[in-house]
Write a structure and sequence with these properties.
alpha/beta, Rossmann fold, two-stranded parallel sheet, 11 helices, 19% strand
């Protein structure tokens, strides 16, 4: 299994294809396992690298792993690019991964040549979105109890719906539940979507992120996620937006994404 010590943590990663680097960042909870079919398709357009974020799947985490900040998650992604010898990449982020990708582009613009945000979890765009995130945070902490796996399940049930959770393959459910410790570490940290101090950007912050960007929302997702996409699409100077069928687990290799990435890697 390929892995790299990046930012002091052993990160598991996979590389598909060859050519310009396409970096995929999964959500919370999640794993590169959920990106494997998409990574194979994206690998026809370049070298698609997907990895397990710290504390998830096959990647390590510091001991004790009580909290992790957005800055740390961004540094992990940048350090992985360094270890792979990639000066820049087309970066695709889904949900919390989209928040990390957005902050990577804001703080390290030279590392991002194109940006795909699949319902990024920037849940501070208005009062209603903040209130929704606060309710979700409280629900997750209440559900966790003595078993972190319940925290991960609670996040997925809210984002995807109870019916979708029940229809997931049992192996996928267990994979997601195994990320509960990392979900709680993100909640206890700073800057991530369900933390007590989530990232808040201004319109001026957005004007400085001038890389080509594609923002994608799903027709069946919760309204706060739609509002986050709309706010970003209106504020980013070089952005396009698309709506696709389905729910929050948007396919990173959807046709609208493949078309955009193809232009970025051509």
């Amino acid at each position: 299994m390929p892995s790299a010590i990046a930012n002091g943590v052993d990160l598991y990663y996979e590389a598909h294809g060859q050519g310009p680097v396409i970096l995929g960042i999964h959500g919370s909870p999640g794993s590169a396992v959920l990106w494997e079919p998409a990574a194979a398709e994206l690998g026809t357009l370049g070298t698609c690298v997907v990895y397990d974020r710290r504390g998830y799947g096959r990647s390590g985490a510091p001991a004790p792993f009580d909290a992790t900040d957005l800055d740390e998650q961004v540094a992990d992604a940048a350090a992985l690019l360094d270890r792979l010898g990639a000066e820049s990449a087309v970066v695709i982020g889904r949900s919390t991964g989209g928040l990390i990708a957005l902050e990577l582009a804001r703080t390290r613009p030279q590392r991002v040549r194109g940006l795909v945000l699949l319902e990024p979890a920037l849940l501070t765009v208005d009062d209603d979105t903040r209130a929704w995130a606060a309710r979700l945070r409280a629900k997750v902490l209440d559900a966790a109890g003595d078993d972190p796996a319940h925290a991960a399940e609670a996040v997925v049930r809210v984002a995807l719906g109870d019916d979708t959770w029940e229809r997931l393959d049992p192996g996928v459910r267990e994979l997601l539940r195994a990320g509960g410790r990392a979900v709680l570490a993100e909640i206890r940290g700073r800057g991530l979507d369900l933390s007590a101090e989530p990232l808040a950007l201004t319109e001026d912050d957005l004007t400085g992120i001038d890389v080509p960007a594609l923002l994608v929302s799903a027709s069946g997702s919760p309204a706060p996620l739609h509002r986050a996409v709309q706010w970003l699409a209106a504020g980013l100077p070089n952005a396009a937006a698309a709506i696709v069928p389905g729910g929050h687990l948007i396919d990173p290799a959807h046709s609208v994404v493949l078309e955009f990435v193809g232009r970025m890697t051509a």
